[in-house]
Amino acid sequence: MSSGTLYDKVWERHAVAELPTGQTQLFVGLHLIHEVTSPQAFGMLGERDLEVAYPELTHATVDHIVPTEDQSRPFVDEAAEEMMAALERNAERAGIQLADPTSGRQGIVHVIGPEEGLTQPGMTIVCGDSHTSTHGAFGALAFGIGTSQIRDVLATQCVAMEKQDVRRITVTGELEAGVEAKDVILQIIRTLGTDGGVGYVYEYGGPVVDALDMPGRMSICNMTIEGGARAGYVNPDETTVDFLAETDRFREDPDRLETLRPYWESVRSDPNASYDDVVEIDGDALEPMVTWGTTPGQGVGITEPIPDPDDLPADKRESARDAQVHMRVEPGETMEGYEIDVAFLGSCTNARLPDLRRAAAILEGRTVHPEVRALAVPGSQRVKAAAEAEGLDEIFTAAGFEWRGAGCSMCLGMNPDQLEGDEACASSSNRNFVGRQGSKDGRTVLMNPQMVAAAAVRGHVTDVRTLSEVTTV
Amino acid sequence: MSDGPAEPVREVRGTGIPVRGNDIDTDQIIPARFMKVVTFDGLGEFAFFDQRFDEHDEQQDHPFNDERFQGANVLVVNANFGCGSSREHAPQALQRWGIDAIIGESFASIFAGNCLALGIPTVTTDEETVTELQDRIEARPDAEIAVDVENEIITVDGETITVTVDDAQRRALVEGVWDTTALMRANTDAVRDVAANLPYVEVDP
């Protein structure tokens, strides 16, 4: 059993009671909700005649179903409009703050929590969304929950949980130009497996993680769930505090930052903390990663050959064979040259300002391949405004990208942005599951934002390092 | 539904349905486009929809389409079942299709938690046992299966196999205490104390 880790400390501080099941009743410091997984929970609450216990600790936004092209109301899609209206109704009735598209603060829930300063170290954070692990970048214990658990949180501000083991993942060395946080996490998932993290919380550290900015740390924590771990975190440090100091919450009240700082420092893992497992990843050896298959664990470096299923462990062979048929790739080849129809820059993994900057740096003075449809979708309205303030939108549009409004967009097929037929997509998102981007024959290749930009220009998956203006993170 | 204890789930009896493959994600179990609804009603018919139907809505080979498995309630799956999105729509769709228990090599943790919230046991056993069980159901779809949650045993046509049920899950199901809202509402004062001791929480006392 771990001891002295951030996970142990935060768990301890939030434990309310032991339940008859042996689970712990854990207090939730921040509850985020969106339109897809919350309406049924409000319905369940109503059926039991219960009220929201701590409405001031829940914050709502809309992201999955919002169109990113025309966000005027009512939405063209009636089902989407109904979901939006239900969220508005539920939030208003319960006294929950809602960042809607008229607020200037709307965006993907995992982008706006951090940028508003809602997400803080030492918190417990839950949301009915598996990518809630993102918020762990701040040293919070953050994880996705189901709708019945949303009901629990609304009714009690608590979740019932079993304590997990802690795996420390140290990323050594330094990332070379063109290699990003996204590549680190794709390598981790490839190494440990898509189910390697079941039963674990991941603690990320080491020189590479220490050197990353907060958006980079968020990209890593975001995809923790793709490795099977429900939560992942980075210990808070000066990078964390500097980021928080620039958010609304602490700009308005700088004293509060100093008040909370000792708590934030106190939850850091102790130098002699003990872990249930320790893994080291060599950051020096990383190159830009791309997926060749239909799970995020099926990835290779851009110059590396796609594996022969027969060379994989027995339990991975069949799914690798199926994936290679679906993706139409051959073992022994690299992914270089894999033709794409769509380039998608967006999602809770990679749609923050630095992600857009790095992609724009590649696109400046270049144009999108004529056969490629390219979308740049900022993660939030604020990211969009900030990008426009520095002229990134002009670079994207001049290159031939569509510059869209904030939302989940083409990460998942719940809004008008979807793949059609067997289109192949170079995507900065997090899931290459069959059907994920809205077409069951669609083919998704996951990669970092610079790689998406490079693929958009060349019309095929390509090594961004063979272009100039490659950014070091 | 009342805010009280849930019904105990000590045993699930019925017949099986095998769905083979590792890493079957919740996007496969219920594609996102069917989630544009504000209730879970009617999700059952969309379970595994994109594996069951082609682009012209013609039926494809899939156990959920197979006549022999209609009426089955024990789903038998392989490793990392239910990975990906946290959508409770996935177990809701399976339950509404008729699934009352799932046997597998391993389950993604959010999915298993969502199943527990619905009173669906997710019991685990090794790859070889799962495969044998799947083969057996294929060969004899009407074979009776009993999932004994309390004693961690499944019985197929009289033959018993030892399985594993997570401790908390077993207790919750067997004792009928899987309705966590009711359980946790009993500790309102303790919740207030924990909140008061956290420096970052700003709530009205």
Provide tags for this entry:
heterodimer; A: 473 residues; alpha/beta; Aconitase, domain 3; five-stranded parallel beta sheet; 33% helix; 17% strand; B: 205 residues; Aconitase, domain 4; seven-stranded mixed beta sheet; 8 helices; 7 strands; globular
Structural class of chain A: alpha/beta
The N- to C-terminal Cα distance of chain B equals 30 Å
Main sheet of chain A, how many strands, which sense, barrel? Answer: 5 strands, parallel
> Span between N and C termini of chain A?
35 Å
Strand order of the largest sheet of chain B: 4-3-2-1-5-6-7
Uncertain runs of chain B? none
Number of H/I helices of chain B: 8
Number of domains of chain B: 1
CATH superfamily of the largest domain in chain A: Aconitase, domain 3
Largest interface, C-beta within 8 A: A-B, 87 and 69 residues
Please give the radius of gyration of chain B in angstroms.
19 Å
Helix content of chain A: 25-40%
CATH structural architecture of chain B: Alpha-Beta Barrel
The count of DSSP E runs of length 2 or more, i.e. the number of strands of chain B, is 7
Shape of chain A: globular
What would you report as the Rg of chain A, rounded to the nearest angstrom?
Answer: 21 Å
Structural class of chain B: alpha/beta
Describe the structure.
The complex is a heterodimer of chains A (473) and B (205). With 473 residues, chain A is α/β, with parallel strands linked by helices. Chain A has two domains: 287 residues, Aconitase, domain 3 (2-Layer Sandwich), CATH 3.30.499.10; 177 residues, 2-Layer Sandwich (Aconitase, domain 3), CATH 3.30.499. Helix content of chain A is 33%, strand content 17%. Chain A is built from 16 helices and 19 strands. In chain A, the strands form five sheets. A five-stranded parallel β-sheet of chain A has the order 5-4-3-6-7. Chain A has a five-stranded parallel β-sheet with strand order 17-16-15-18-19. A four-stranded parallel β-sheet of chain A has the order 11-10-9-12. In chain A, a hairpin with a 7-residue loop joins strand 13 and strand 14. In chain A, helix 6 packs parallel to helix 8. The longest helix of chain A is centred in the first third of the chain and has 17 residues. With 205 residues, chain B is of the alpha/beta class. Chain B has one domain: Aconitase, domain 4. In chain B, helix 4 links the parallel strand 3 and strand 4. Chain B is globular, with a radius of gyration of 19 Å. Chain B starts with 10 loop residues before the first strand and ends in a 9-residue tail after the last helix. At the A-B interface, strand 1, helix 2, helix 3, helix 5 and strand 8 of A face helix 3, helix 4, helix 6, helix 7 and helix 8 of B.
